[in-house]
Amino acid sequence: MKSMSFVVPSLVLAATLAAQTQSPPASKIAVIAIQQAIIATKDGQKAASELSSKAEPKKKELEQKQSDINSLQDQLSKGQNTLSESTKNDIYKNIESKKKSLQRDFEDAQAEMDQEQQKILQQLGQRMMAVIERYARDNGYTMVVDVSNPQTPILYAAPSIDITKEIIELYDKSTAQMSAPAKPAAPTGSTTPPAAKPPVTAPPNPTKKQ
User: Fold this and answer.
1) Percent of the chain, pLDDT > 90?
2) Cα–Cα distance, 19 to 21 (Å, whole number)
3) What is the pTM of this model?
4) Rounded Cα distance, 155 and 136, in Å
């Protein structure tokens, strides 16, 4: 993924030095939002759906813990004038304990989710890179810049050089072709089966003369 990042000042310097020595052919540059492209592919959408389903049980667990905290806070609020100080202190301590537990669980779940997302981006990113390289070669691009990378200082890029949509379509097309079942080879020559040969039988035993 990081291999798609380029530094614009270096590019400008290289172009300036080249112009001082000769007139090189015009460079053809394209930009792509690679993370958005990966997510928008059919593989990316499938992976996102599976990841969401995997996270759903944990999400419900965290929501239930938050609901328990809300109930205790409501109990404490309504009992300000009726509950004893010791009871209110116990409820308050319980609330704080549950809040800390919820925060830890949330951070652990978020870290696990981020790790799964990075794993998906790396797996699909390798396939995406192959598609981008092939597209760039076939269409004569000398450079493709990832504008979704925050380390890429792109201040403006014309929509006409954005190849994100084309790469998504090419990726899905390539994936569909690879997953399609291979067609059986067509028979060559005449389709008429050869005539069956008569079975070979042993010659009869010669009759002995008396």
Assistant:
1) 59
2) 6
3) 0.61
4) 22
